[in-house]
Write a structure and sequence with these properties.
By secondary structure, this protein is mainly α. About 75% of the residues lie in helices and about 0% in strands. The protein has a single domain, classed as Tetracycline Repressor, domain 2 (Orthogonal Bundle), CATH 1.10.357.10. The protein is built from 9 helices and no strands.
């Protein structure tokens, strides 16, 4: 209940409007009960963000065909990521706006969710980098970070800085050129 209530707050008003007190009020519990269950404000947000990662993962897996065929699969995954960000902007932003206190690491269970997302992109990259898993991992990280940057510029109406207005056009160009480079 708490995670669902937190998602609703973030989805409608963004992470800046989120508070454990609002979540507790919305579900009829005390804030102390929330902290007994989640341990901290940060851990509650991590659990909420984890559901966003799960939703993104499920959407990407659903969009994939059984056959992995390189560049077209990567483009399909990129479009899926862009669509998720466009339709779930506040939840997507919460993944990147929330910071843990310094000297605090992400919990293992959360890191596994992130790795699971990257592995979806690594699979179609493997044949393009001669089945070198290290290169596929680095390529997935590079492509994902680049698409994220394009999304961020596009969804904040700043793509005109680079001379275009289309997230998809830039993403397709990025993938075409990056794949040509790693496949050479």
């Amino acid at each position: 209940m708490a995670i669902s209530a937190g998602q609703k707050i973030i989805n409608s008003k963004g992470l800046s409007a989120f508070s454990a007190r609002k979540v507790a009020r919305d579900i009829g519990y005390t804030i102390g009960t929330l902290y007994n269950v989640f341990g901290s404000h940060e851990n509650l947000i991590l659990h909420i963000n984890a559901t966003t990662l799960d939703d993104m993962n499920a959407l990407m897996v659903e969009q994939l065909s059984k056959q992995i065929n390189g560049k077209s699969t990567i483009k399909k995954l990129a479009s899926c990521y862009i669509n998720f960000a466009e339709h779930n902007y506040n939840r997507w932003r919460a993944l990147f706006n929330h910071s843990l206190p310094s000297n605090t690491s992400l919990p293992d269970w959360y890191e596994k969710k992130i790795k699971k997302l990257f592995s979806i992109l690594e699979a179609p990259l493997l044949p393009l980098v001669n089945n070198n898993s290290k290169k596929a991992k680095q390529a997935a990280q590079t492509i994902w970070a680049s698409i994220h940057g394009i999304c961020e510029l596009g969804l904040t109406d700043k793509l005109d800085i680079v001379g275009t207005t289309s997230i998809q056009t830039l993403t397709d160009s990025l993938i075409d050129n990056y794949i040509a480079g790693v496949s050479a």
